[in-house]
Design goal:
single chain; 2 domains; mainly alpha; 74% helix; 471 residues
Length: 471
């Protein structure tokens, strides 16, 4: 399979299955984020709600793009993906997956809403640190910008969820005149049709947003596995026309040659020379290939590395000199340079349709199973009062919009914490801080604070332990 030995093929299949298990657990762990409000307001029956949510989670993964998936891949040091040591690869894969699965499963068992995003981020961070330990020459470094961006998005999003839900509840109280909207659901009685419509719509929005963000994390995880174990097939997108890549690097080289080296410092000049070297290497690989519309399998990983470094260094150069005229470029040349860089990145920022389909199915199926523990926490244990229609709608509207914006920006965000904090905000707006159940809130906050440190240490330890055993 993919030109691998029997042993590596078994490892690949097992790793993919384990990654799908992570996404399956993610599904039933995070189901409550979408269905708790429609269940506790009796807008939908539990079975109908989880099936409906599962379908929209599936669609969210399948149609939601790949920005977050690529962000997950880019969190790892580039060197760990280009490392051809099988033992390093095995240690990395098992450290990532075992940490993510164990922590998600443990917090689900105790009914604690915990972030799969925090879990995966901590796992990747830990593996990156461990890989730095075994490369003592200092040549390996984490992609700190990506780590900081992802960390900030995970830190800030719950605060946004809390504050914006309180604001939205205040707006609702001023513009919605029907008191029924702010009432607790009547026992064994469905809400009015217009309220049901609002809550089903917000449930659908959160489900789709969750799939488009959290589902991409599974896609990113499987792509890390495929790139590491089968680079000749997955280092670059073989379905794209290689002649287009050649045209992109030629165009990039042309525009870079127009940059006035006298306007940039010595460090930037060195970066510019490195970009030109990488561009030259790609052109040479394509020109030396027997078939001009493909790249020799052994060279695909090298080309991937060159593309990533070209993109990284060009972005740094262009972002530092936002006034492109100072570089000696016209507006049209600057625009075309960025366009060609974007097209060149598309050769590395991809995922096969079957990977997206498998992750979609896993998340969708997971959503339909194991949902009750977290739903009870969300619906009954955050606030002292029963969830009202307005609270459910406001929390889910804020969650869906926050997750949607994060997905467009390519940032992982915690669906669990955005919605949990939104529910808390709605409870405070309804009855003040005394309306919160502090024991539950404390448990959620503790999980929020300790998830990343625990998963960093756990994944780092698993990686180093496996590395020592295998070597």
């Amino acid at each position: 399979m993919f030109g691998l030995s029997t042993g590596l093929t078994i490892l690949l299949l097992f790793s993919i299955l384990a990654a799908l298990t992570f996404e399956f657990i993610n599904g039933f762990h995070d189901t409550a984020n979408a269905v708790a409000t429609v269940i506790y307001t009796k807008s939908l029956k539990p079975r109908t709600a989880v099936i409906w949510s599962g379908i929209w989670n599936f669609l969210g993964v399948y149609l939601g793009g790949l920005a977050v998936a690529m962000g997950i891949i880019n969190l790892l040091p580039l060197e760990i993906l280009v490392d051809q040591n099988t033992y390093h690869t095995m240690a990395m894969i098992f450290a990532l997956i075992l940490t993510a699965v164990f922590w998600n499963l443990g917090t689900w068992y105790f009914g604690i809403p915990c972030s799969s995003s925090h879990t995966l981020l901590g796992s990747i961070f830990g593996v990156g640190i461990a890989f730095m330990f075994i490369n003592v020459d200092g040549s390996v470094a984490l992609n700190w910008k990506k780590v900081i961006d992802a960390g900030l998005s995970l830190l800030i999003s719950p605060i946004f969820g809390f504050g914006l839900t309180m604001l939205l509840m205040t707006i609702f109280k001023r513009i919605v005149k029907r008191k029924k909207f702010f009432d607790e659901p009547e026992k064994d009685k469905k809400p009015p049709f217009w309220i049901r419509g609002i809550l089903v719509l917000t449930c659908t929005s959160v489900s789709y947003s969750h799939g488009s963000n959290d589902g991409q994390k599974g896609v990113g995880l499987i792509m890390i596995i495929l790139i590491s174990l089968a680079p000749t097939f997955f280092a670059i997108d073989s379905s794209k026309n290689i002649s287009n890549m050649y045209g992109n690097v030629q165009a990039i080289d042309t525009y870079l040659n127009k940059i006035n080296a006298n306007t940039i410092n010595a460090e930037e000049q060195a970066k510019l020379m490195q970009i030109k070297t990488d561009v030259k290497d790609i052109r040479q690989v394509i020109e030396e290939s027997e078939a001009k519309d493909e790249i020799t399998p052994k060279k695909r990983f090298e080309v991937r590395k060159d593309i990533i470094m070209i993109s990284k260094n060009c972005d740094k150069l262009l972002s530092k000199h936002s006034n492109y005229m100072q570089l000696g470029l016209t507006e049209i040349e600057n625009s075309k340079l960025k366009s060609n860089l974007k097209e060149l990145r598309s050769f590395t920022e991809f995922a096969p349709w079957w990977v997206i389909l498998m992750v979609s199915a896993s998340l969708g199926l997971g959503t339909m199973i194991g949902w009750k523990r977290i739903v009870v926490t969300i619906g009954e244990k955050i606030g002292k009062s029963h969830l009202s229609y307005a609270q459910g709608a406001s929390a889910e509207m804020v969650a869906a919009s926050t997750i949607g914006v994060s997905t467009m920006l390519g940032l992982p965000v915690s669906t669990t914490h955005v919605l949990s904090s939104g529910i808390a905000g709605s409870m405070v707006s309804q009855g003040g801080l005394k309306n919160l159940q502090y024991k539950t809130v404390k448990n959620i906050l503790i999980a929020w604070v300790v998830t990343i440190p625990v998963t960093v240490v756990l994944s780092c330890g698993i990686f180093l332990g496996l590395y020592w055993i295998l070597n």
